Structure formats: structure tokens, C-alpha cells
Amino acid sequence: MNLIKIRNSFLYLSVIGFFFFPFYQTHLISIAFFLTFFTGEFKNFSTLLKKNKIALLFIVFFSIHLVSMLYTENISSGWHGIEVKLAFIAFPLFLPLIFNSKTVNFYLIFKIMIYTGIGYCLLSFGRAGLIFLESKNVSDLLSSNLGFRIGQSHPFVHPTYVSLYLNVLSLLLIYKLIKINTTNKYKLFTFGTTALFFIFIVFSSSKLGILLMLINVIILLTYYAIKKSKIKKSLIILSVFSLITVTGIYNSPLKIRFEQAYKEIFHGNKNASGYQMSTGTRIWTWKSTTYIIQDNLLQGVGIGDIREELKIKYKELGITDESRNKLDSHQQFLQTFATIGVFGFINLIMIFFILFQKAIKTKNILLFSFALFYFIFGLTESMLETQAGIVFFTFIAILFYQIPAKNFIESQLFKRN
Hints:
Shape: globular
Largest sheet: none
């Protein structure tokens, strides 16, 4: 086995880590990165990097965070934040190289991600089902127990992040089905797998995950209606899907979560010390973050001090719940602005602008949908403050940006079944 095959093996194994062992994922990626230095692929480094604008923006984004270490006071917390964001510097330096080569099996990456997602869902439902059999409490089938991790000393991947992963995988599956004439066996596999993923998303109790699922279905049905001239059929499918989803939510504990969210947005949540669910908490964390931005507009407070500054603001506004005053901004754009200032904020906006621009220019629905998912995700989550959000984002963004949608169809990723 040559060095490139060994490197690729670590890359393929790291893909499993999205679901099962994100803590060890960085180690596998680091080994793949290190081995690339000896494969001879770095001879095309400067040319490929210049062509990949998104990779350059990732490097700048990481660099601004690193510069903030010069004025942050909590050095220990700062270095931890830098460690979490290492994918922003590591991935742009070697993923464009290996994605450009013909040695990486994109079909295998796709296949590993799909089967890993299936395995994660089944094992999670199995674990939650065993807990339910003992407690007889339906809530035990939902987000608090819905997860599975190899190495149980670490917590599960947050259900909201898993719902994002599964939405992206569903996008890939259905896109292939629309784009290529496949066998009935593959069609059955696609519909069954997508149904499993959507059921998991609903059971994950993630309001954002369910919203992304609906947006995902609308995008795919719109593409199907245009591509196949099936407008009427698409509207019927959307109506049936919406009816089933709404009925399921209305007759489950999720109904309470949505009602509480509506109440806290429009009728309650008048003071920070009152009882709050997740939506109410987010509203007050956003307010707290805007005050920090106003006081530190140019350079932010630094990557090491942001959480401490937020805790101070939470206390000033009356957020007394200890479990809640440890939260970050729960809004990536505000979090970035408060941490590294206006230039970091502009850099983050540019990342999404370039992704959307490339997607529209090349008519790449995969890139467009992925960028839209993460943009919406960032409005209510600090998705680029955690390893689970960063590694998936940087990996898929570079992959979709570098390889045009047309090449996806012609490449191994979308082999005919």
C-alpha cells in the first residue's frame, strides 16, 4: 500500500467521525494532513490555493482569530478556541490538493457518510428504545437520549448538528435520484434512507433541524419540478409531506416546544430572570452580545475573553440560571462580531457571499443548499464555535466549492446504480 492510499484511508476513516467520534476525528485528519507532505502533491499548492477563494477566506478567518490572542486576557481559553478552529487553517492547506487529484474516491466518501448516518440513526433509536422500555416515558425517545457515541466518556453530538448532517445527506441522495436514471432498488434505498433521516430529525426535537428539513424538501421539489416538468406532482408531494410533518408534531411532545417558542417570541420573555425555554434564552443572549459589540466594535474582545464577557452581560441583564449563563451567543454572526470585531464579521459574510456566488454562477444546487443550510443554522446557533460544526462545514464547503455539480454527476460520487 503506497503513501497516498494510507493517507486516504485516514481521510475516509475521519468521515465516520462526523457522527461517532468527533473527538478523535481531528487526530485522524492531522495524520492525513501530515502524510500529504510526503506524497508530492504540494507541488501544485500555490496554484490550487489561489483558485480556491473559499479556502483563502478560511485561512484569513483563522488568522484574525489568532491575532486576537494578542489582546485577549484569558490565554488558556483563547488557545482552546484556536484549537477548536484548527480546521479553518488545516483543511484549506491540503484538501484542495487531494480533492484535485484523482486518487480520492469521492463515491466512497459519499457511501461512508450515508451508511454512517444510517448506522448512527439505528443505534440511537435502539439505545433510546431500551431506555423507553424501562421508563415507559415517550420523552425518552426524544433528543435527550437520541444519540450514540463510540467512547461514552464524551457527550453525544448535539441533535441539532446531527439534523444538519442528515439534511445534507438527504440532499445528496435525492439530488442523485432526480439527476440520474437509477434502478428501482436504489430508489427504494433512497426513499427508505431519507425517511429514516427525516424521522430522526423530527425525534431529535430540533426546531431548526425541522425547519431545515422543510426548506430541503422545498428546494428539492422545486428542482424536480423544473428538471422533470412535474409541477403538479411536486405540489402534491409537498402538501402531503407538510401535512404528515405538522400532524406528527401536533400529536407529540414537540408541540409544547413550538408553542413555547411562539409564546416567548411574541407574548412573553419580558425579562431575563423569568422562566425561559431555548428560544427565550437565545433572545437574551443576542441582546447581551449586541451590547458587547457596541463597546468593542473594531477588534472585538478576543477569542479568549468572549465567554467571560458574555457571562458578565448575562449577570447585568438578570440571567441568573447557572446553566444558561455559560452559553455562547447562539448566533454565529453576532458571536464572531463580538469576538474578533468588524473585520472578522465582514470575513464571515464574505465566506457565505462567495459560496452563494459560486453556486449561482455554476448552477450548483448542492453548494447553494449547503450554504443556505449553514447560513440559516448560523442565525440561531454558534455553529463555528464547536468542532462538530466547523469540521463538517470546512470539509463539505471546500469539496462542493472545488468540484462543480456537473463533475459530481460524471465522477465516482454519483455512479449509476
